[in-house]
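Table S2 (text version). Query chain:
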Amino acid sequence: MQYNHPRTERILTTQRVIIASLGCLALLLLLLGRLVWLQIVEHDRFVTASERNRIQVVPVAPPRGLIRDRQGILLADNRPELRLVLTPEESADLEAVLAVVDARIGLSGDERAQFYNRLQSRRRPYDPVVVKTQLSDQDAAMIAVDGYRFPELQFDATPRREYPYGHLTAHAVGYLGRLNAEELGRVSESQYAATDVYGKLGVERAHEETLHGDVGLERVETNARGRIMRVMSRDDPAPGADLTLHLDLGLQAKAYEILGDRRGAIVAMDPRTGGILALASQPTFDANLFVRGISSVAYQALQEDPALPLFNRALRGQYPPGSTIKPMLGLVGLDLGVIRWSDRIQDPGFFQLPGVERRYRDWKRWGHGTVDLAKAVIESCDTYFYDMAVEAGIDRLAPAMSLFGFGKPVGQDVIGDGAGILPSREWKRAQFRQAWFPGETVIAGIGQGYWTTTPIQLAVATTALANRGTLVAPQFVQGIAPVQRSIPLATPADWERMAREMERVLHSPGGTAAGAGKDASYRMAGKTGTAQVAGLGQDEVYDATTTPEHLRDHALFVGFSPAAEPSLVLAIVLENAGSGGSQAGPVFRALSDYWVLDRQQGSLPPDLAWVASVEAQLQQVEAP
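Corresponding structure-token output:
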């Protein structure tokens, strides 16, 4: 057995110590070099990064612009709302804290679900999460009484959109709602960094960019855990611009008061500017529900309501225009040369195409006797316009009627208005791949068949009659230049005479709305319409008493007042109400009297106590 010599072992040990020492020295030098590199060479970069970790830029939401009616009455306001918020990082047991909140002020299932949705969404550390909104003073006191036990709970005051007349203005002003995925992809991420709501309908949607304003910034100092310690500087946000509408709250309330619980729509316009003075769709809903966060139960109830309160009938309702378009058809016939004011026909109560047995009946089964264009408008003679439509032909009739805005959206700053249907040979071929039949031209002559229009389209078309040939596009917001267009039909004398014949609809004994115009102290002009909903057989007689309500005729009316210098154009549709003359005519008279007599064409302010009572009535109708 061999043993290492002691001297040899000392040498080996010494060598190993030297090698280890050199290795440690090399590592120390490497560490010192890295330290020098980081502290001296990379100093500026790491100082900047450190500052970025310490100082955060936080967006500040801008105050949203206010919306007022033409008299300056607030229709959309920003009011402070007290909210209860929770900082999850400071809570050891979220469920226990929520249980305490529920026991003291109540938490619905929807509120709990919304809390967890917010909790799981992207947010910075120590950003509080909303637990409950719209806290009353009593609610706040119930939480604050021993708030020291729950440091994770705080109160937060924030502006919330408020619609003082939420039912009256829901379909016109619209409402705000939470940003959805589609909207997030459309808006500027930086501008909406501090905003979680967006205009959904009406003026709120059409003028979202103007109302929103520009986001502000706060530079804040945070600790290592990301909690804000202090605000270092602030760039204030630029508030959204306030808007003043053409809308008149008094006329709006009057429209809803007259509609009552009847389904329908009313559009009122100023024919000089195109300003929408009133836009009512009944039934309606409370716009505030969506701002506050509507519950799933309440939203489902609105969606499943057969009366469709969320559906804007004034902008999107599709109705046959019926006889309301006869004055316009008459002007087209005059322009095309197929009729003259002096031309007369004999009306036996029906019309037949040559060589065809089918009879297209007049609403007056025994006929109107000898009829010229004036009488055809005043008494609404169907047979006269059957004959005129066939003489003109659909290929000339459709393009001429499109000049009045039929068959396309008509709004300027109006969001979501429907196009309706202006029937033509080309439209039918594209829609059904079928040929056009002569009988379809006949019924187009009285605004039936495929023809559908919206109430706002009817109002716009009527501005051309009120202005004697100049059509004006509708708009909500004041300050926008009116969009006007002359309609190259007939002669100025023809337009003037047609307006006079429309006066006689209300002010002569034979007029279809003579009852509505009786004893008026000023002159009005208008045209009734009764739109058939269900088809009738050749010899079948319409009887409203035996017809299911949803199949009864719609009552329509278009008109303007005062007749000589109009400041008000109205288009009225009452669903399944029956005769336009007996049902919609009185609505026109009541609204016209309110505007011309009570309000002196809008120069006098409305009675706000009465307006509030109408809003309360709508709320009571909605409650069941």
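Notes on Table S2: The first strand starts at residue 55 and ends at 60. The chain is about 40% helix and 15% strand.
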